[in-house]
Specification:
Helix content is 12%, strand content 41%. The chain is mainly beta. Strands 1, 2, 3, 4, 5, 6, 7, 8, 11, 12, 14 and 17 form a twelve-stranded mixed sheet that branches. The mean pLDDT is 96.
Protein backbone atom coordinates (compact mmCIF):
# COMPACT_ATOMS: atom_id res chain seq x y z
CA UNK A 1 0.00 0.00 0.00
CA UNK A 2 1.47 3.34 -1.13
CA UNK A 3 0.61 6.64 0.62
CA UNK A 4 1.42 9.70 -1.48
CA UNK A 5 1.78 13.05 0.25
CA UNK A 6 1.99 16.55 -1.23
CA UNK A 7 3.86 19.04 0.93
CA UNK A 8 6.07 22.11 1.13
CA UNK A 9 8.95 23.10 3.40
CA UNK A 10 8.82 26.75 4.41
CA UNK A 11 8.34 28.65 1.13
CA UNK A 12 9.43 25.88 -1.22
CA UNK A 13 7.43 24.80 -4.24
CA UNK A 14 4.98 21.90 -3.67
CA UNK A 15 6.70 18.51 -3.60
CA UNK A 16 5.61 14.88 -3.64
CA UNK A 17 6.69 12.18 -1.26
CA UNK A 18 5.71 8.78 0.11
CA UNK A 19 4.93 8.19 3.78
CA UNK A 20 7.30 5.41 4.88
CA UNK A 21 6.85 2.75 7.54
CA UNK A 22 8.56 4.92 10.17
CA UNK A 23 6.06 7.75 9.65
CA UNK A 24 8.53 10.02 7.88
CA UNK A 25 8.58 11.07 4.22
CA UNK A 26 10.63 9.48 1.48
CA UNK A 27 11.20 12.04 -1.25
CA UNK A 28 10.27 11.18 -4.83
CA UNK A 29 11.25 12.66 -8.16
CA UNK A 30 9.00 12.79 -11.19
CA UNK A 31 5.28 12.71 -11.78
CA UNK A 32 3.13 10.44 -9.61
CA UNK A 33 0.49 10.36 -12.34
CA UNK A 34 2.88 8.82 -14.86
CA UNK A 35 6.35 7.86 -13.62
CA UNK A 36 8.37 8.67 -10.53
CA UNK A 37 11.57 7.61 -8.81
CA UNK A 38 12.03 7.07 -5.08
CA UNK A 39 14.94 9.12 -3.78
CA UNK A 40 17.25 8.19 -0.88
CA UNK A 41 16.64 11.29 1.25
CA UNK A 42 14.28 11.09 4.24
CA UNK A 43 12.34 14.13 5.48
CA UNK A 44 11.01 14.49 9.02
CA UNK A 45 7.25 14.89 9.01
CA UNK A 46 7.46 17.75 11.52
CA UNK A 47 9.37 19.90 9.01
CA UNK A 48 6.67 19.98 6.38
CA UNK A 49 3.36 21.69 5.71
CA UNK A 50 0.82 19.30 4.25
CA UNK A 51 -0.95 20.53 1.13
CA UNK A 52 -4.15 19.29 -0.51
CA UNK A 53 -3.09 16.05 -2.20
CA UNK A 54 -4.25 17.11 -5.68
CA UNK A 55 -5.24 20.16 -7.72
CA UNK A 56 -8.53 19.22 -9.38
CA UNK A 57 -10.12 21.01 -12.31
CA UNK A 58 -13.43 20.00 -10.73
CA UNK A 59 -14.88 18.07 -7.83
CA UNK A 60 -17.71 15.78 -8.90
CA UNK A 61 -19.84 14.85 -5.91
CA UNK A 62 -22.34 12.04 -5.52
CA UNK A 63 -25.34 12.64 -3.30
CA UNK A 64 -27.47 10.08 -1.48
CA UNK A 65 -25.18 7.09 -2.03
CA UNK A 66 -25.99 5.42 1.31
CA UNK A 67 -29.57 4.27 1.80
CA UNK A 68 -29.55 5.30 5.48
CA UNK A 69 -28.55 8.86 4.52
CA UNK A 70 -31.34 9.01 1.92
CA UNK A 71 -33.76 8.07 4.70
CA UNK A 72 -32.50 10.72 7.09
CA UNK A 73 -32.85 13.31 4.30
CA UNK A 74 -36.41 12.04 3.67
CA UNK A 75 -35.52 11.28 0.04
CA UNK A 76 -36.19 8.18 -2.04
CA UNK A 77 -33.24 5.93 -2.86
CA UNK A 78 -31.98 7.09 -6.28
CA UNK A 79 -32.17 4.87 -9.35
CA UNK A 80 -29.07 6.56 -10.82
CA UNK A 81 -26.19 8.44 -9.16
CA UNK A 82 -27.18 11.97 -8.14
CA UNK A 83 -24.41 14.37 -9.21
CA UNK A 84 -23.41 17.91 -8.28
CA UNK A 85 -20.19 19.92 -8.46
CA UNK A 86 -17.94 21.81 -6.07
CA UNK A 87 -15.48 24.36 -7.45
CA UNK A 88 -11.70 23.95 -7.08
CA UNK A 89 -11.71 27.21 -5.08
CA UNK A 90 -13.38 25.29 -2.23
CA UNK A 91 -10.35 23.00 -1.70
CA UNK A 92 -8.38 23.11 1.55
CA UNK A 93 -6.02 20.59 3.11
CA UNK A 94 -5.36 18.77 6.36
CA UNK A 95 -5.35 21.08 9.43
CA UNK A 96 -6.70 24.02 7.42
CA UNK A 97 -9.66 26.08 8.62
CA UNK A 98 -13.25 25.84 7.41
CA UNK A 99 -14.80 29.32 7.30
CA UNK A 100 -18.38 29.64 8.57
CA UNK A 101 -20.14 31.98 6.10
CA UNK A 102 -22.20 34.84 7.53
CA UNK A 103 -25.19 34.07 5.29
CA UNK A 104 -25.66 30.57 6.78
CA UNK A 105 -27.07 29.57 10.16
CA UNK A 106 -26.34 25.84 9.88
CA UNK A 107 -23.06 24.38 8.70
CA UNK A 108 -22.94 20.56 8.41
CA UNK A 109 -20.15 17.97 8.15
CA UNK A 110 -20.35 15.03 5.72
CA UNK A 111 -17.59 12.41 5.85
CA UNK A 112 -16.85 10.90 2.44
CA UNK A 113 -14.37 8.74 0.55
CA UNK A 114 -12.83 10.60 -2.41
CA UNK A 115 -11.47 9.11 -5.63
CA UNK A 116 -8.52 10.84 -7.36
CA UNK A 117 -8.29 10.42 -11.12
CA UNK A 118 -4.98 9.37 -12.67
CA UNK A 119 -5.77 9.85 -16.35
CA UNK A 120 -7.94 12.05 -18.50
CA UNK A 121 -10.83 9.80 -19.51
CA UNK A 122 -14.18 9.87 -21.24
CA UNK A 123 -16.81 7.14 -21.70
CA UNK A 124 -14.87 4.41 -19.91
CA UNK A 125 -16.29 1.04 -18.92
CA UNK A 126 -16.26 -0.24 -15.36
CA UNK A 127 -13.44 -2.60 -16.36
CA UNK A 128 -11.24 0.41 -17.20
CA UNK A 129 -11.78 2.28 -13.95
CA UNK A 130 -8.99 0.77 -11.83
CA UNK A 131 -6.29 1.72 -14.34
CA UNK A 132 -7.71 5.26 -14.51
CA UNK A 133 -7.70 5.94 -10.74
CA UNK A 134 -4.61 7.17 -8.89
CA UNK A 135 -5.95 6.43 -5.42
CA UNK A 136 -8.28 7.40 -2.61
CA UNK A 137 -8.40 9.91 0.22
CA UNK A 138 -10.65 11.48 2.89
CA UNK A 139 -13.11 14.26 2.11
CA UNK A 140 -15.52 16.45 4.06
CA UNK A 141 -18.45 17.67 1.97
CA UNK A 142 -19.11 20.79 4.06
CA UNK A 143 -22.66 22.00 3.47
CA UNK A 144 -24.65 25.09 4.44
CA UNK A 145 -27.76 23.02 5.14
CA UNK A 146 -30.18 25.90 5.56
CA UNK A 147 -29.15 27.36 2.19
CA UNK A 148 -29.50 23.96 0.54
CA UNK A 149 -33.08 23.73 1.81
CA UNK A 150 -33.85 27.33 0.89
CA UNK A 151 -32.45 27.16 -2.64
CA UNK A 152 -33.87 23.78 -3.62
CA UNK A 153 -30.63 23.02 -5.47
CA UNK A 154 -27.19 22.60 -4.02
CA UNK A 155 -24.69 24.91 -5.71
CA UNK A 156 -24.54 27.76 -3.20
CA UNK A 157 -24.78 25.49 -0.16
CA UNK A 158 -21.82 23.36 -1.30
CA UNK A 159 -19.51 25.86 -2.97
CA UNK A 160 -18.20 28.39 -0.46
CA UNK A 161 -14.44 28.71 -0.18
CA UNK A 162 -13.04 26.09 2.26
CA UNK A 163 -16.05 23.76 1.78
CA UNK A 164 -13.93 20.95 0.28
CA UNK A 165 -11.39 19.72 2.87
CA UNK A 166 -9.40 16.84 1.39
CA UNK A 167 -6.44 14.70 2.43
CA UNK A 168 -4.13 14.03 4.05
CA UNK A 169 -2.81 11.32 1.69
CA UNK A 170 -3.62 9.58 -1.57
CA UNK A 171 -3.59 5.84 -0.93
CA UNK A 172 -3.31 3.16 -3.61
CA UNK A 173 -3.90 -0.58 -3.66
CA UNK A 174 -6.91 -0.73 -1.34
CA UNK A 175 -10.48 -1.89 -1.83
CA UNK A 176 -12.53 1.34 -1.83
CA UNK A 177 -15.82 -0.53 -1.45
CA UNK A 178 -14.92 -2.05 1.90
CA UNK A 179 -13.56 0.66 4.19
CA UNK A 180 -14.65 1.85 7.62
CA UNK A 181 -15.63 5.54 7.54
CA UNK A 182 -16.09 7.67 10.65
CA UNK A 183 -16.48 11.30 11.61
CA UNK A 184 -15.60 12.82 14.97
CA UNK A 185 -16.78 16.22 16.17
CA UNK A 186 -14.71 17.51 19.08
CA UNK A 187 -13.67 13.91 19.74
CA UNK A 188 -17.23 12.50 19.76
CA UNK A 189 -18.13 10.03 17.03
CA UNK A 190 -21.01 11.23 14.86
CA UNK A 191 -20.82 9.05 11.74
CA UNK A 192 -19.78 5.39 11.77
CA UNK A 193 -20.30 3.23 8.70
CA UNK A 194 -18.56 1.27 5.95
CA UNK A 195 -18.31 1.90 2.22
CA UNK A 196 -19.69 -1.60 1.66
CA UNK A 197 -23.05 0.13 2.16
CA UNK A 198 -22.70 2.19 -1.03
CA UNK A 199 -25.78 2.13 -3.24
CA UNK A 200 -23.49 2.60 -6.26
CA UNK A 201 -19.96 1.13 -6.03
CA UNK A 202 -16.89 3.12 -7.03
CA UNK A 203 -16.39 1.55 -10.47
CA UNK A 204 -20.01 2.24 -11.34
CA UNK A 205 -19.66 5.86 -10.23
CA UNK A 206 -16.50 6.61 -12.21
CA UNK A 207 -17.82 4.96 -15.36
CA UNK A 208 -21.21 6.72 -15.04
CA UNK A 209 -19.64 10.15 -14.50
CA UNK A 210 -17.21 9.67 -17.41
CA UNK A 211 -20.23 9.25 -19.69
CA UNK A 212 -21.45 12.67 -18.55
CA UNK A 213 -18.22 14.66 -18.61
CA UNK A 214 -14.51 14.32 -19.30
CA UNK A 215 -12.58 13.54 -16.14
CA UNK A 216 -9.13 15.12 -16.01
CA UNK A 217 -5.99 14.02 -14.23
CA UNK A 218 -6.24 15.08 -10.58
CA UNK A 219 -10.02 15.50 -10.61
CA UNK A 220 -11.89 14.39 -7.49
CA UNK A 221 -14.99 12.24 -7.27
CA UNK A 222 -16.66 12.05 -3.87
CA UNK A 223 -18.84 9.07 -3.09
CA UNK A 224 -21.55 10.26 -0.72
CA UNK A 225 -21.90 10.35 3.04
CA UNK A 226 -23.47 7.87 5.47
CA UNK A 227 -26.16 8.68 8.02
CA UNK A 228 -25.33 10.86 11.00
CA UNK A 229 -24.84 14.27 9.40
CA UNK A 230 -25.13 17.20 11.75
CA UNK A 231 -24.10 20.78 12.46
CA UNK A 232 -20.71 22.25 13.28
CA UNK A 233 -20.10 25.42 15.27
CA UNK A 234 -17.33 28.00 15.19
CA UNK A 235 -14.35 26.64 17.11
CA UNK A 236 -15.19 22.98 16.47
CA UNK A 237 -12.66 20.33 15.50
CA UNK A 238 -13.89 17.90 12.83
CA UNK A 239 -12.11 14.68 11.83
CA UNK A 240 -12.85 12.34 8.93
CA UNK A 241 -11.23 8.93 9.45
CA UNK A 242 -11.21 6.20 6.79
CA UNK A 243 -9.65 2.80 7.37
CA UNK A 244 -6.32 2.23 5.56
CA UNK A 245 -6.15 5.91 4.56
CA UNK A 246 -5.86 7.98 7.72
CA UNK A 247 -7.49 10.99 9.33
CA UNK A 248 -8.35 14.41 7.86
CA UNK A 249 -8.52 17.10 10.56
CA UNK A 250 -9.95 20.61 10.18
CA UNK A 251 -11.17 23.40 12.44
CA UNK A 252 -14.22 25.65 12.00
CA UNK A 253 -13.47 29.34 12.14
Amino acid sequence: MVKFIRYSIEDSAPQWGIVNNEGNITDIEGDIYTQYKVMPNIINFERVTLLPPCEPTKIVCVGLNYSDHAREMNTAKPKEPVLFLKPPSAVIGHMDEIFYPDMSQRLDYEAELAIIMKNTVKNISEDMVDMSVLGYTCFNDVTARDLQTRDGQWTRAKSFDTFAPIGPYIVRDINPDKLDIKLYLNGEIKQDSNTSKFIFKTRKLVSFISRVMTLNRGDVITTGTPAGIGPMQRGDKVEVEIGEIGKLINYVR
